[in-house]
Amino acid sequence: MIGQRTRGLQSTLLLCQLLLLPLLLLVSGLLAFTSVTRIERSLIAHYPMYAVIIIAGLLVESMSRDRARIRLNLWQHSFLDQHRVTVRQVSYALGVLLVYLAATKDQAISRWFLGIFGVALYGGLLATNYWLPGVLARRIFDGKWVERTLLVGKPEHAARLRRWLQGKEAYGLRTVGILRTDRMTSGDSGGLPCLGGIRDLENVIRSEGITQVIVLELPQERERHHDLVSVLEKMGVRLLILSNLEEMLEHPVVHVEDEGMRFITLREEPLENPLNRFAKRALDLTVALPVVLFVLPPLMLVIWVVQRFQSPGTLFFYQKRAGIQNREFQIIKFRTMHQDNPDEARQAVQGDVRVFGFGRWLRRMSIDELPQFINVLKGNMSVTGPRPHMIEHNAQFAEHMSNYHIRTFVKPGITGLAQVRGFRGEARSEAEIAQRLESDISYLENWRLALDLSIIARTAWQLLVPSKTAY
Questions:
Q1: What ranges in 2-154 are assigned the alpha helix state H?
Q2: Is 118 exposed, middle or buried (0-12, 13-18, 19+ CB in 10 A)?
Q3: Are 386 and 443 in contact (CB under 8 A)?
Q4: What separation in angstroms does the CA of 180 have from each of 61, 184, 197, 330, 412?
Q5: Residue 42: its pLDDT value, please?
Q6: Which of 155-159, 192-196, 463-467 has the lowest mean pLDDT?
């Protein structure tokens, strides 16, 4: 019920905004063509098409909002939150219009009009996002749409739901009280009237005119909840069950439905989508090919010559690393340590005597990592992702972090979210390992192509201004 009311109110809000568009176009046109510039009447015929294109842009934004996991909180009067959604709407609307103008080589539109309309569109959408939901809700859900709601469960669960219940009052949800399922039937009940215990269900429904019951935790006693459902079905009362599965598992959960089967998993994984994988692979090739073809060859010659003077030996350094799903692969780097290194598994530290002079500069500037673009072309690495660690270090880190291997759900990267956040170099403590792991899992759960582009841009900046932890 609540989900349908929320979606319905959002759709009504969007419809009102679409109806507002022609008015904004008209006002912007009057301002532009009477006080700033002039336009031939024959060109005015183009403007209804502009309105259609802008409406299409808003519709595309609305349909893509769930996929982008962006929610418009209709009752949170936070200017910043409403501003973010409004900017997204304006960007889609004007973006689609500009694509149309470029594709059709349309020169009829006035730049003055476009500027005035952009400001008017932002103001109109922000005002409607901020004030209109409350007006619509009062008109739609008052009166016969009110649901008198009874809570069933423990007071501590009711207290967790308090803010949500207050927000949903605008949707017509009125909380009457609570039936406690613990042994106490009096005392503090999360600020709600205690109307008795579970045995009083039928009497309370009749006496209070209850139309909806919210059970505050997942069923644990099958028979009791079966009886509860039977009573509600018999009396024509809606039932909602609050999932406390996250509390039970001590981990956020994600609900998945596929071909009629419903599942619960622990996290979203955008890179399980083949289109997302294709886009990420395309970005990898776009970045890696120019580096391998044009940057690496002259760089290899320069580094080889300097190595001959400071530390003769092989140009490259090969080492086994853990890749996606912990599959081993050979990582390629420019050699920065002396050839006779008795302890390759030990992490480099600041002032490490194993690193020769020029190699120390290569490491600080991250130039030693550039041969890994060959790994990217081979497909066992990506430009962005969790950094691949040595097999021995993976085993050590996993002993301290029970969810450490979650990071191997995606390909390792030359750079990653942890690195651009400053977590580079030696991991000195369990807390530092946890910070890196948190960034890696955040990357896995929230991947977007824009995130990869952001990481690449921030990495490029760090090449110019190296982090203090780079050595």
A1: 2-35, 41-44, 47-65, 79-104, 111-141
A2: middle
A3: yes
A4: 44, 7, 5, 61, 50
A5: 46
A6: 463-467
Backbone φ and ψ for 264, nearest 5 degrees, come out as -125, 130
239, 422, 433 from 427: Cα distances, Å = 51, 12, 6
Contact 414, 388 (CB under 8 A): no
Q: What is the mean pLDDT of residues 205-216?
A: 91
What span, in angstroms and rounded, lies between the C-alpha atoms of 139 and 120? 26
**Positions of CATH 3.40.50.720 in the chain:** 147-266
pLDDT one-digit tens code per residue, 297-324:
999 999 999 999 998 989 999 999 999 9
The CATH T-level fold of domain 147-266 is: Rossmann fold (3.40.50)
User: What is the separation, in whole angstroms, between the first and last Cα of the chain?
Assistant: 58
Q: How far is 458 from 419, CA to CA, in rounded Å?
A: 10
**How many whole angstroms separate alpha carbon 288 and alpha carbon 371?**
10
| Residue among 215, 261, 210 nearest 235 (CA) | 210
pLDDT tens column, 143-166: 667 888 999 988 888 888 888 888
What 8-state DSSP symbol labels residue 311? S
pLDDT band of residue 93 (cuts 50, 70, 90) is very high
**Beta carbons within 8 Å of 198's beta carbon, 6+ residues apart:** 152, 179, 180, 181, 224, 228
Residues linked to residue 262 through DSSP beta bridges, in sequence order: 257
List Cβ neighbours of 432 (8 Å cut-off, separation of 6 or more): 423
Which residues fall within 8 angstroms of residue 159, CB to CB, at 6 or more apart?
190, 191
Alpha-carbon gap, residue 394 to 321, rounded angstroms: 9
CA dihedral 439, 441, 444, 449 (to 10 degrees): -10
* Whether the model pTM is above 0.85: no
391 pLDDT more than 60: yes
The answer to whether residues 311 and 368 touch, using CB atoms and an 8 Å cutoff, is no
The CA dihedral of 131, 133, 134, 136, to the nearest 10 degrees, is 120
List of residues 6+ apart from 204 with CB closer than 8 A: 150, 177, 179, 195, 196, 210
**Residue keyed to tokens 């080492």:** 319
Which residues contact residue 246 at a Cβ distance below 8 angstroms, ignoring those fewer than 6 apart? 252, 253
What value does the CA radius of gyration of the chain take, rounded to a whole number of Å? 30
